[in-house]
């Protein structure tokens, strides 16, 4: 999971639906900078654009792309492999762009993994 700068991930005390009031973000998902996730579920391979808001009880299914600034209302289900945008979120198009972007980000992370060495392995010559 890639979590951008200034992202807020929070939970409420309970949901009226009776579902657990937790945030569940699954592997291969990218959360854009400035987004807010509150007691929601974002499944595998999603792209949540910058400054999105996903509210209590919302379910974002695998492979979904949310355009920057999208607001997903409480309890809304966003079906798999779709692109949504707006406030409130509305369907825009079909497509699994999130899964492909997630794969590219994982590959890029593997390519650059050796650039960041653990601090205890760097000799200090004083």
Could you write a compact summary of the structure shown?
With 126 residues, the chain is an alpha/beta fold. The protein contains 1 helix and 14 strands; from the N terminus they run ββββββββββββββα. Strand 13 and strand 14 form a beta hairpin.
Question: What is the spatial order of strands in the main beta sheet?
Answer: 1-4-7-10-13-14
Query: What is the helix fraction of residues, given as a range?
Result: 10-25%
- Percent strand: 25-35%
The low-pLDDT segments are none
How would you characterize the largest beta sheet? 6 strands, mixed
Q: Oligomeric status of the shown chains? A: single chain
Radius of gyration: 17 Å
Number of strands: 14
Structural class: alpha/beta
Q: Order of SSEs, N→C? A: EEEEEEEEEEEEEEH
What is the residue-mean pLDDT, rounded to a whole number? 87
Structure annotation, total helices = 1
Distance between the termini: 38 Å
Rough shape? Answer: globular
Defining traits:
126 residues; 13% helix; 28% strand; globular; four-stranded parallel sheet; six-stranded mixed sheet; single chain
């Amino acid at each position: 999971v890639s979590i951008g700068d200034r992202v807020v991930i929070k939970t409420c005390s309970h949901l009226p639906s009776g579902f657990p009031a937790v945030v569940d973000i699954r592997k291969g998902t990218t959360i854009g900078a400035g987004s807010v996730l509150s007691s929601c579920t974002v499944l595998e391979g999603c792209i949540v654009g910058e400054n999105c808001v996903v509210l209590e009880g919302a379910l974002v299914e695998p492979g979904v792309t949310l355009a920057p600034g999208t607001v997903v209302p409480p309890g809304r289900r966003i079906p798999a492999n779709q692109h949504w945008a707006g406030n409130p979120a509305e369907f825009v198009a079909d497509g699994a762009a999130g899964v492909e972007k997630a794969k590219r980000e994982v590959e890029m992370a593997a390519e650059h993994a050796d650039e960041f060495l653990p601090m205890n392995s760097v000799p200090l010559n004083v």
